[in-house]
């Protein structure tokens, strides 16, 4: 890592890449963890937006740079006293996109002076724009007034075509930077380029085809109905032909392509974006999609050509999009003037669609009706299940609703039944971890706990354990809330608190069924903990989950629920703590040599170079750089020495020391191996440990 550099060399400056094209692809901590010079740190400090696209990083940016010795105290003070600001340019760009008005920008600036919040958050707080619009804008081709001249492909195109010279472009960039005007807008306002030239240059930058649509006169209704007309008008986009198995959609603004590409996941065929002249597109839209009856077809109650209601058709589109994206959850979140639809893909939420409030209410009613929930009851939370056939396959969703200020917020979890049959190897366990798990499950009795935060895959691990057991010669029973997956040969009981079937009551009943193995969905109270302990001590193998932050903390959590040290020590057979980490996207993965700090974190000695991997983000991973997740584990099998320690109700440090002596496989060792093998990046490791 480069430290305390005051004047970068010319070669270093060229490697810094402080231009906006690089900044917008990363958050600020991403930039600073690379080999950057002092000048780059100065540049990115003017970019005051905490991007809401990734997990929020604690601590201030400049404080982080000072803490890690990337800058000196003098440089830190210089940053703090800097007058650089990008709010004016940012606000102007959002105005040009039609996201806000001049009056809204003026009001937002006055609020910013009082609160100190960045512009994007102020606009959201004042309800002047939508989260989906802000996210898309921050990921788009905005050009903030700092760094080197942006848009090299566009500039090269202008020079090659003889439209501008290098000297003219350099002068234009410095003038635009001084006036804090977006570079492309400056070129157009000063009559250096036309709209079509900018559009052709943008197509080259994105590697997209350009079509002037001169031969397009009429478009079939079938094509126009493939994408909701409100979406077409919002993004100035138009589906105009099908070639092979691709739907060609013309755009006037390159910055809309990425979001519409996401919407392409909701179609039955791949979408090929094409850039086209804005004037020509608007002319076609006004003529073909301006009729009010057609424009509102997805909002009013009329039926589609296929005989389905608009709400039913929209729900199918939303669900198909989730399946094509490889996601696990759908979130429909209403606000005053709209409702956003978000998908959770690999644990990360992405905005995919914005619905009209009336359409959102109709879709919500459709979901509740299919899930056998009370449609008219909108003021209490409800749960349900929905089975729907989508593209010749049956899909099962768990539904949960909760009343919010502007309607019901709906969460839909896709039940991925194939996860119930995952092997330990598929879950990501190392060979020694798989062997240890097998030893725990071979015990005729005892309590095996899986621990971890919400959404860490604890239940999936328990199902994998059940699949390792002999369902032909053993009586295997479970009590869950809810039953996640159906397992053949296993008796599964659903908790029903309203009818008195709690975890505690269910476990007592199942023990009278002479169960050999009992899986309890979660130990969440003293009653369930005591019954689970008694079952384990009476000769039953008990599998369950508990919330804790480490394997040893799980033992402490059990005792905090009223279990004595003597009972816990005698009942426990083993503890598994787990987390899920993001795999590096294989499509945009690139190697690099580990620096001194990374070698230290990985405990690598010697001078030989070490190759690690990172990813820049691509369309297949939604620009996150991640694709898929894998489990990391910390395991300890309770031996006699550790039992003696548990009997005495030890402190956390005493428990950790005893677990280490018992041969605990620490989480850090597993994560470190995944970093070295190239499955995850080092920032995921630092986030976990």
Mean pLDDT: 79
Based on secondary structure, the structural category is: alpha/beta
Low-pLDDT residue spans? 1-29, 31-59, 141-148, 291-307
Instruction: Tally the helices.
Output: 33
CATH fold-level name of the domain at 419-579 and 630-667: Rossmann fold
Query: Mind telling me the CATH superfamily name of the domain at 419-579 and 630-667?
Result: P-loop containing nucleotide triphosphate hydrolases
Distance between the termini: 21 Å
Overall helicity? 40-55%
**Tally of extended strands?**
18
Please outline the helices and strands.
Layout: H1 10-16, H2 20-23, H3 28-32, H4 38-45, H5 61-67, H6 73-80, H7 87-96, H8 102-115, H9 119-125, H10 131-138, H11 152-160, H12 166-179, H13 183-189, H14 195-206, H15 221-224, H16 229-235, E1 237-243, E2 246-251, H17 257-263, E3 271-275, H18 278-288, H19 292-295, H20 310-325, E4 329-334, E5 339-345, E6 348-355, H21 357-370, E7 382-390, E8 393-404, E9 407-414, H22 424-427, H23 431-441, E10 446-451, H24 458-467, E11 476-480, E12 491-494, H25 503-511, E13 517-520, H26 526-537, E14 541-546, H27 551-560, H28 565-571, E15 572-584, E16 589-593, H29 596-601, E17 611-615, E18 626-637, H30 640-647, H31 652-661, H32 667-677, H33 682-688
Helix pairs in contact: 5-6, 11-14, 20-21, 25-26, 26-28, 27-31, 28-30, 30-31
Describe, in plain words, how this protein is organized in 3D.
It contains 33 helices and 18 strands. The protein is globular, with a radius of gyration of 29 Å. Helix 27 packs across helix 31. Among the domains are: 42 residues, no CATH class; 71 residues, GMP Synthetase, Chain A, domain 3 (2-Layer Sandwich); 106 residues, Beta-Lactamase (2-Layer Sandwich); 199 residues, P-loop containing nucleotide triphosphate hydrolases (Rossmann fold, 3-Layer(aba) Sandwich), CATH 3.40.50.300. The chain has a 7-stranded mixed sheet, with helices on both faces. The longest helix has 16 residues. It is of the alpha/beta class and 689 residues long. Strand 13, helix 26 and strand 14 form a beta-alpha-beta unit.
């Amino acid at each position: 890592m480069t430290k305390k550099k005051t004047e970068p060399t010319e070669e270093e400056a060229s490697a810094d890449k402080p231009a906006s094209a690089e900044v917008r692809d990363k958050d600020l901590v991403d930039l600073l963890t690379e080999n950057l010079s002092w000048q780059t740190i100065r540049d990115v400090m003017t970019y005051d937006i905490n991007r809401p696209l990734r997990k929020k990083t604690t601590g201030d940016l400049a404080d982080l740079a000072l803490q890690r010795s990337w800058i000196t105290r003098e440089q830190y003070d210089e940053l703090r006293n800097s007058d650089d600001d990008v709010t004016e340019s940012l606000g102007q760009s959002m105005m040009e996109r039609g996201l806000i008005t001049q009056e809204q920008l003026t009001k937002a600036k006055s609020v910013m002076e009082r609160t100190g919040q960045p512009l994007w958050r102020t606009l959201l707080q004042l309800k002047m724009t939508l989260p989906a619009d802000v996210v898309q804008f921050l990921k788009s081709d905005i050009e903030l007034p700092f760094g080197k001249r942006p848009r090299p492909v566009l500039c090269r195109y202008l020079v090659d075509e003889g439209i501008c010279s290098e000297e003219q472009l350099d002068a234009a960039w410095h003038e635009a930077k001084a006036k804090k005007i977006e570079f492309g807008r400056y070129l157009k306002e000063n009559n250096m380029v036309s709209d079509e030239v900018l559009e052709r240059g943008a197509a080259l930058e994105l590697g997209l085809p350009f079509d002037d649509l001169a031969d397009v006169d009429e478009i079939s209704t079938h094509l126009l109905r493939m994408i909701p007309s409100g979406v077409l008008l919002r993004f100035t986009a138009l589906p105009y032909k099908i070639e092979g198995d691709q739907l060609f959609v013309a755009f006037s603004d390159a910055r809309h392509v990425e979001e519409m590409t996401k919407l392409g996941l909701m179609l039955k065929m791949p979408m090929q974006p094409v850039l086209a002249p804005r004037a020509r597109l608007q002319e076609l839209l006004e003529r073909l999609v301006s009729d009010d009856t057609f424009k509102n077809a997805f909002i009013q109650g009329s039926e589609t050509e296929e005989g389905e209601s608009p709400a039913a058709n929209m729900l199918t589109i939303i669900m198909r999009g989730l399946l094509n994206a490889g996601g696990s959850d759908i979130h429909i979140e209403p606000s005053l003037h709209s409702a956003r639809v978000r998908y959770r893909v690999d644990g990360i939420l992405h905005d995919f669609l914005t619905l009209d409030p009336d359409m959102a209410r109709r879709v919500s009613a459709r979901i509740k009706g299919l899930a056998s929930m009370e449609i008219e009851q909108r003021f209490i939370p409800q749960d349900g299940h929905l089975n729907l056939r989508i593209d010749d396959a049956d899909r099962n969703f768990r539904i949960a609703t909760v009343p919010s200020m502007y309607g019901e917020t709906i969460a839909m979890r896709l039940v991925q039944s194939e996860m119930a049959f995952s092997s330990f190897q598929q879950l990501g366990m190392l060979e020694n971890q798989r062997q240890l798990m097998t030893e725990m499950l071979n015990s005729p009795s005892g309590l095996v706990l899986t621990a971890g935060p919400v959404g860490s895959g604890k239940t999936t691990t328990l199902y994998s354990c059940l699949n390792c057991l002999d369902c032909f010669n053993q009586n295997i029973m479970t009590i869950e809330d809810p039953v996640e997956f159906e397992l053949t040969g296993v008796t599964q009981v659903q908790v029903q608190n309203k009818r008195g079937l709690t975890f505690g009551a269910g476990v007592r009943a199942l023990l009278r069924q002479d169960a050999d193995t009992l899986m309890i969905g979660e130990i969440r109270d003293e009653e369930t903990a005591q019954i689970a302990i008694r079952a384990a001590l009476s000769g039953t193998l008990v599998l369950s989950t508990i919330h804790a932050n480490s394997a040893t903390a799980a033992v402490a959590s059990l005792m905090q629920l009223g279990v004595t040290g003597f009972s816990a020590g005698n009942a426990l057979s083993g503890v598994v703590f787990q987390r899920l980490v993001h795999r590096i996207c294989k499509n945009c993965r690139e190697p690099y040599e580990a620096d001194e700090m990374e070698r230290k974190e990985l405990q690598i000695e010697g001078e030989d170079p070490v190759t690690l991997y990172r990813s820049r983000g691509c369309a297949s991973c939604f620009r996150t750089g991640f694709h898929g997740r894998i489990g990391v584990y910390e395991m300890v099998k309770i031996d006699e020495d550790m039992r003696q320690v548990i009997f005495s109700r030890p402190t956390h440090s005493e428990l950790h020391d005893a677990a280490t002596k018992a041969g605990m496989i620490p989480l850090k060792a597993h994560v470190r191996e995944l970093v070295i093998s190239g499955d995850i990046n080092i920032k995921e490791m630092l986030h976990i440990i």
